[in-house]
UniProtKB/TrEMBL annotation:
It comes from Novosphingobium guangzhouense. Residues 32-222 form the Metallo-beta-lactamase domain. GO terms for molecular function: hydrolase activity; metal ion binding; sulfur dioxygenase activity. InterPro entries: Metallo-B-lactamas, Mito_Persulfide_Diox, POD-like_MBL-fold, RibonucZ/Hydroxyglut_hydro. It comes from the Bacteria. Keywords: Hydrolase, Metal-binding. GO terms for biological process: glutathione metabolic process; hydrogen sulfide metabolic process. This is MBL fold metallo-hydrolase.
Length: 305
């Protein structure tokens, strides 16, 4: 394998104890997002991945319906949260990482290419000089192949761009949190038409994850309940994706994938919350600074998306 980061992740999965880490999923039905709490049973150190701040765009009101059950679980289980890990700057929900950080501690981290995303969306929202585009709103930025530990759990970060330029997957023990690269086999893959997205890059990234050992557990960031299924699911394996992913199973060529993905993306509406979500998530989940009346405002760029 001429891919040291992937080789390291594959060795980590192969040597990890099966069934460890302990993984608890929380599904947010309004945004179809899965938040995970992952912990090491020996030390009870934990990470929270892709948390959701509930947001009603009609009233402009935030709430904690999605985040409070995560908070209650962590407190009841007596976990120490080291990290709030984002797989990418989400376009479909606001992050609850600052809320959970304030309650639980821990550092907020995302892929280092977030700086490109901040440039793009900083320009879209005509953000002023007070908006740093160097990733410094986050506590930590990951590069491809970075490694760290959650208690005794080994973690390898893989940069998997395509859906967005900054997407990363977190390989934790024998489990991979794939973000928005692929979805469950019967739904396929993520869209690649957001600013900075690219279908060919996405195919290479998701096929890279599928080079991991066949038994590797894969955890999705969303499930959209395709026709023919009546319950939400978010866990599968490398072997199952390679056999059955409707967009990207073994045998699908890069060109076939790109034609399919670009064709399908032309039919998709923008996510309901993209404008509030990216404006907040590019700031690591923080609202823009309040104006002189003490109120924080979100902008709507007209006729831009
Ligand atoms: N209907 C959802 C769609 C959200 C959406 O576009 N999700 C992205 C991931 S952030 C995606 O890849 N969707 C694939 C698809 O809808 O086929 C919404 O409005 O929030
Ligand atoms: Fe996404």
């Amino acid at each position: 394998m001429s891919d040291p980061a992937l080789a390291h992740a594959a060795a980590q999965v192969a040597s990890a104890q099966q069934g460890v880490p302990v993984i608890k999923a929380f599904f947010d039905a309004p945004t179809f997002t899965v938040t995970y709490v992952v912990h090491d049973p020996d030390t009870r150190h934990a990470a929270i991945l892709d948390s959701v701040l509930t947001y009603d765009p009609a009233s402009g009101r935030t709430a904690f319906e999605a985040a409070d059950p995560v908070l209650a679980y962590v407190e009841q289980a007596g976990l120490t949260v080291d990290w709030h890990l984002e797989t990418h700057a989400h376009a479909d929900h606001l992050s609850a990482a600052p809320y959970l950080q304030q309650k639980l501690g821990g550092k907020i981290a995302i892929g280092a290419h977030i700086c490109e995303v901040q440039q793009t969306f900083g320009a879209l929202f005509n953000a002023g000089a007070e908006f740093a585009r160097d990733g410094s709103d986050f506590d930590h930025l990951w590069a491809d192949g970075d490694t760290f530990a959650i208690g005794n759990l080994a973690v390898t970060v893989l940069h998997v761009p395509g859906h967005t330029p900054a997407c990363v997957a977190y390989v934790i023990g024998d489990a991979v949190f794939v973000g928005d690269t692929m979805f469950m086999p019967d739904y396929g893959t993520a869209r690649a038409d957001f600013p900075g997205g690219d279908a060919r890059t996405l195919f290479r990234s998701l096929r890279r994850i599928l080079e991991l050992p066949p038994e590797t557990r894969l955890f999705m960031c969303h499930d959209y309940l395709p026709e023919g299924r009546d319950h939400y699911v978010w866990e599968t394996t490398v072997a199952e994706q390679r056999r059955a992913n409707v967009h990207a199973h073994d045998g699908v060529t890069e060109d076939e994938f790109v034609a399919m993905r670009e064709g399908r993306d032309r039919t998709l509406a923008m996510p309901r919350l993209i404008l509030p979500a990216v404006q907040v998530n590019m700031r690591a989940g923080h609202l823009p600074a309040p104006e002189d009346n003490g109120v924080a405002y979100l902008k709507i760029p007209v006729n831009q998306l």
